[in-house]
Specification:
Helix content: 55-70%
Radius of gyration: 24 Å
Order of helices and strands: HEEHHHEEH
Oligomer: single chain
Number of domains: 1
Number of strands: 4
Structural class: alpha+beta
Strand content: 5-15%
Length: 183
Amino acid sequence: MFWGTSATVIALDLITKLLAERYLVPRYVPHRIIGDFVRFTLAYNPGAAFSMSLGPYSRFIFGTFAVIALVVLWRLYRLSGPAQRAGDRLRILALGLAWGGAAGNLLDRVRSPLGVVDFIDVGLSSWRFWTFNVADSAVTVGAVMLAWSLSREERQERHAREAAHAPVVREGDATPGAPGPET
């Protein structure tokens, strides 16, 4: 599931970016998809998320961060053994989405000297969200799903610890905390 999800995200990301570069020209001209709410607008982002830039070295620095993220996500996948992978498909899906998105943007950073192709433009009137792409969406959704999966696992472990330390009450025993038999 991890590799299939990652490959699907990479393929969808690359195809949509190539289509954007071919059909959404010239740059920065919005093409309405759902009124003014969803538009496709070709833009190149030489920086990182939300157009963060570190000057002329942005491409190298953010490329390095992407490689580190790919290694960390792959290690998280490998650390979840086969039994856990079978039991927590949500986590594996989340890791695959995040890995595929990070890989898609890294490939784009290597492929294009102009930067990562962004084209999905969402907003209302003059208020616009940052322009993004399929890889960005996959990373975001994957991160949210991973956080939820880890939170769920932590809750389950806490409940298991509490249950292990709870007093055992047998039939006929006095209820814990209740007064004993009268004499």
